[in-house]
Automatic annotation (TrEMBL):
Active site: residue positions: 186 (charge relay system), 254 (charge relay system), 459 (charge relay system)
The Peptidase S8/S53 domain, residue ranges: 180-492
Gene3D superfamilies xref list: Peptidase S8/S53 domain
PROSITE patterns found in the cross-reference section: SUBTILASE (PS51892), SUBTILASE_ASP (PS00136), SUBTILASE_HIS (PS00137), SUBTILASE_SER (PS00138)
Region (Disordered): 560-628
Biased segments, Pro residues type: 568-616
Keywords assigned: Hydrolase, Protease, Serine protease
Protein name in the entry: S8 family serine peptidase
Origin superkingdom: Bacteria
Protein family according to the UniProt entry: Belongs to the peptidase S8 family.
Species name: Pelomonas cellulosilytica
């Protein structure tokens, strides 16, 4: 194998506590209750100036079918409530984004209180900003042997690569098949010679020019990633603009990494391979310097799936699979992750949950698969991965147990290696792997040269499931969404059992053993998923037991973490072999009785003799009556010897 060029790790992000109530970057939001064509062609959308007062999002309780009537009703609600805002744009299913008027003065919190008191509205919430699922604060380093950098794409091996998805075996069937379009909803894309050939023309949905960081343009038909770094100097210079945003002094190039996992140009004797050899990647930029606005995210989801978005050209290449690297983190005050419960006691959380649920329902009706990262806080699954209808993915270590950072819980559908790089944490010296290698950019804040880097996070586990689903549809385009989801789970390998690390619980949440209540149906097996796709009606998964892992390194880690070890099964004693029965001796044949001699009769007197003729000699017996021929017996013994020595070679 040709040695790869030296890997350049992306910059390490600086962690900063969140300053606002966080929601996850929405899973494929597409709920359109009215005709999207009508929205685009007929609906007058008022353009208003942005002020310090925050935009809001509301849902009409009983939305008329006609979008003009919706807008008129909304205008009456705002007037009656004395809220100086106007409808900015529809978000589907009766949801609208509201923008403060240019001369508006007031407090968004007061306006929310008034709007929530109006029975004509089902929900009212701030248009919060989301951030991508953060890359854990692990140092990203160059693998010692670049030729083996992409272990996550290599053969599954119980001894060296127990957790991986076996993509190499899946390629035997799919490498020449055209995959459906995969949309990457993320930070955008940077130019990379090992990726450009597989990219479609995407779109930038970051509407606020300062957040879009694209020269004051804002929303545009250019999904390039200009960088999402926000320095402390920038933040301090305009705290009103950046309030609620997270300071990251370096750009993530997150969208480029994910796109490379899925669609790097493969089999070209250069750089890295991608999961899908014949794929089209649709970059949809929804995240900028202040994460992702819910409203921008909603529009990006709808557009990616082929639904019409007001003011945006139609998407000529709708995606069949969407992958989202966003996950809500625990609230700073309550410590709980944002739920996807429409009845949550927090009205903001409930409204966001309803928005996401409406959108996911609409998107699923289009047959679109939404895959989302579970999150990287070693806790409960974040949103939108915890929403019904979203395929949540947790991250495993190369050996198959949970990565140190991955979230876990009942909402997880599958686990797959997401990298578990060393960062000086407990057990890193013994158990860390070298991370997920993919395409990236070497720039610190703005794009520079293309490169390759090692990363870790559930954001890089989710694309593997999205890629496997695309391989299934490439193999059998007639598969339904339900069949693809069922096949991914039915074909999964059982979770490994790392005895010394114990099972994952709220108290044992670092490196630990997944089970079906914390890590879904098992570990992704792309090769078996493709087999399911070939014959979904008759597929029978192979019978496989959980692989038990034991080593001195695992034992040390379990002790350091204080894990409650899983008892190692005591092997059943090997039964003594049953002796072959002694054959009964063959009795000697009983000789036939010798007949008593017949007494010679008393001869009559002999007359004078007449000379008798000389008799002919008697004929010799031919061996009849069942006697065995010696030659025939030797032949039979020879045949028996030949049968006994023949080997089965199939």
């Amino acid at each position: 194998m040709k040695t790869l060029p030296a890997l350049t790790p992306p910059p390490r992000p600086t962690s900063r506590a969140f300053r606002f109530n966080q929601f996850v970057a929405a899973a494929t939001v597409a709920g359109v209750a009215v005709s999207a064509a009508v929205l685009a062609a007929r609906l007058p959308v008022r353009v208003v100036a942005s002020r310090a007062s925050a935009p809001l999002i509301v849902k009409l309780a009983d939305a008329p079918a006609d979008p003009r009537e919706q807008q008129a009703l909304l205008g009456r609600v705002l007037a009656d409530a004395g809220v100086p805002m106007a409808a900015d744009r529809p978000l589907g299913s009766g949801w609208w984004r509201l923008q403060p008027l240019a001369d508006a003065a007031g407090n968004s919190a007061v306006w929310l209180t008034r709007l929530r008191a109006d029975g004509r509205l089902a929900h009212a919430m701030p248009d919060l900003h989301e951030r991508r699922a953060a890359v854990p604060t692990d140092s990203l380093f160059r693998p010692a042997d670049p030729a083996n950098a992409q272990w996550w794409l290599d053969d599954q091996s119980d001894t060296t690569n127990a957790g991986v998805a076996n993509f190499t075996k899946a390629w035997d069937t799919t490498k020449n098949a055209a995959s459906p379009v995969i949309a990457v909803l993320d930070s955008g894309i940077t130019s990379h010679a090992d990726l450009n050939a597989n990219l479609l023309a995407g779109y930038n949905f970051v509407s606020k020019p300062e957040y879009a960081n694209n020269g004051g343009v804002g929303r545009s038909a250019n999904a390039n990633d200009p960088g999402d770094a926000l320095t402390q100097v920038e933040y301090d210079a305009n705290t009103a603009l950046w309030d609620g945003c997270v300071v990251n002094p370096v750009s993530s190039w997150h969208g480029t990494v994910v796109a490379g996992q899925l669609g790097a140009v493969t089999n070209n004797a250069n750089g890295v391979a991608g999961i899908n050899w014949n794929v089209r990647i649709l970059p949809v930029r929804v995240s900028g310097k202040c994460g992702a606005s819910v409203a921008d995210m909603v529009d990006g989801m709808r557009w990616a799936a082929g639904l019409t978005v007001a003011g945006v050209p139609a998407n000529p290449s709708p995606a069949k699979v969407l992958v989202i690297g966003f996950a809500g983190v625990p609230d700073k005050t309550t410590g709980r992750p944002p739920s996807c419960n429409v009845n949550d006691t927090d009205p903001n959380v409930a409204a966001a949950a309803r928005l996401y649920s409406d959108a996911v329902t609409e998107l699923r009706s289009q047959g679109v698969l939404v895959v989302a990262a579970a999150g990287n806080q070693s806790g409960s699954v974040g949103r939108p991965a915890n929403c019904a209808g979203v395929f949540a993915v947790a991250a495993a270590n190369r050996q198959g147990f949970k990565s140190i950072y991955s979230n876990f819980g009942t909402e997880v559908k599958l686990a797959v290696p997401g990298g578990d790089s060393a960062n000086g944490a407990t057990c890193d010296n013994d158990l860390a792997d070298t991370g997920i290698v993919s395409t990236t950019n070497t720039g610190t804040t703005a794009p520079d040269k293309a490169g390759y880097g090692a990363v870790a996070g559930t954001s890089f586990a989710a694309p593997q499931v999205a890629g496997a689903a695309a391989l299934m549809w490439a193999t059998n385009p007639a598969l339904t969404l339900a069949q693809v989801e069922a096949g991914l789970k039915a074909s999964a390998r059982p979770h490994v059992t790392a005895y010394a690390l114990g099972y994952c619980t709220t108290l044992n949440k670092r490196r630990c053993t997944f089970n079906d209540t914390t890590g879904g149906a098992g570990l992704l097996d792309a090769a078996e998923a493709v087999k399911f796709a070939l014959t979904p009606a008759s597929y029978t998964p192979p019978v496989r037991a959980s692989l038990g892992l034991q080593s001195a390194a695992l034992t040390r880690c379990g002790a350091q973490q204080g894990s409650t070890a899983i008892p190692v099964p005591t092997p059943a004693p090997t039964p003594a072999p049953t002796p072959a029965p002694t054959p009964a001796p063959t009795p000697a044949p009983t000789p036939a009785p010798t007949p008593a001699p017949t007494p010679a009769p008393t001869p009559a007197p002999t007359p004078a003799p007449t000379p008798a003729p000389t008799p002919a000699p008697a004929a010799t017996s031919g061996g009849g009556g069942g006697a065995a021929s010696g030659v025939w017996l030797l032949g039979l013994l020879g045949a028996a010897g030949a049968l006994g020595s023949r080997r089965r070679l199939d």
